[in-house]
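Sequence, please.
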């Protein structure tokens, strides 16, 4: 059973999307294998290599922990990460944030144009953006909302025009860069998918509440 446990933990480690969790399970697997080698197999060669595996993984976890501690996020970046990138290490979050830029949007600034490709995905920290379909305002976005996020979900042209209606502060990234990062980094891809899904849910709830209010009025 102990021998099977060591292999089971190793297989489970391969299912982990987080490198830290993967390494922890590899270490647990190695400890089970060491016990198996010492108590039942009496195999010093196996003990040596499993011990080396434990040491290497502990060293890598310590290295990653130290690198994580050195990452510094601004207040705006902290807001973004805590709201829409939960579960992503600070180092990976910073890597994503560094691919985009923080900008100030003035009233009238167009972020997306209906029927045209979306060049950038935007995350609002403050301000307000109007969403127009056929020049009719159908919704507004504010702090905590993405703009243009559907372009990375369906790779389709903008379904609406998004225009800054109140001075805004936002982070934006080129759609192409974000798509590449999603394909190459499962940790960021998974967190972004969850963050976008939560944002879409909040938008739908807000829109339904607004329509209910109009109906009552």
């Amino acid at each position: 059973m102990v021998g099977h446990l060591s292999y089971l933990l190793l297989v489970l480690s391969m299912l982990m999307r987080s490198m830290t969790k993967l390494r922890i399970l590899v270490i647990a697997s190695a400890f089970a294998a060491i016990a198996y080698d010492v108590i039942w197999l009496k195999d010093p060669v196996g003990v040596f290599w499993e011990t080396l595996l434990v040491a290497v993984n502990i060293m890598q976890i310590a290295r990653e922990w130290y690198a994580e501690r050195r990452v510094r996020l601004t207040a705006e970046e902290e807001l973004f990460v805590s709201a829409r990138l939960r579960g992503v290490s600070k180092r990976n979050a910073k890597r994503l944030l560094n691919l985009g830029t923080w900008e100030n949007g003035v009233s009238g600034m167009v972020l997306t144009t209906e029927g045209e490709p979306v060049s950038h995905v935007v995350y609002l920290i403050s301000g307000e953006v109007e969403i127009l379909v056929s020049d009719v305002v159908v919704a507004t976005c504010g702090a905590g909302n993405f703009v243009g996020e559907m372009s990375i979900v369906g790779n389709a042209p903008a379904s609406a025009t998004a225009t800054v209606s109140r001075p805004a502060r936002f982070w934006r990234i080129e759609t192409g860069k974000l798509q590449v990062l999603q394909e190459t980094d499962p940790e960021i891809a998974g967190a972004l998918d969850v963050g976008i899904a939560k944002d879409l849910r909040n938008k739908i709830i807000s829109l339904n509440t607004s329509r209910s209010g109009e109906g009552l009025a």
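The mean pLDDT is 91.
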